[in-house]
Amino acid sequence: MEKKQNKKVILGVVAFIAVVAILGAVYYFTRPETQKGAKEVAITVVSEEGKKTEYEIHTDAEYLQGAMDDAKEEGLTYSGTEGDYGLMVDTVNGEKAVYEDDGAYWAFTVNGEYCNYGVSEQPVADGDKFEIIYTIGE
User: How far apart are CA 38 and CA 128, in angstroms?
Assistant: First the structure.
């Protein structure tokens, strides 16, 4: 009886490893494409009051978070908490969006469209124009 139970445990572990491998392969082949090398991008921060602060940066970053780090030299600041989906930005240039209080959050767009990924996985291409907009949800 113990051998049957051991076989079930071993089969369960093998099945788990197979599922993890398949999910890893799916992510690998569907992850966002990145562009290596030097790029010029713009990041505009729109505060709660609608004030725009613009940053024109030269970067080798492949993802938005790296470009935002490079913009720190120009004065951009941001912070947040790490979660299951990467960094959840809640503070930009000292202004905190607290969703629990009034539904506020920082919306991220690239070339006029909402970003499809979090800041740590959003690809950066030469000429991209990002906006970080203080938004109050409905």
Answer: 12
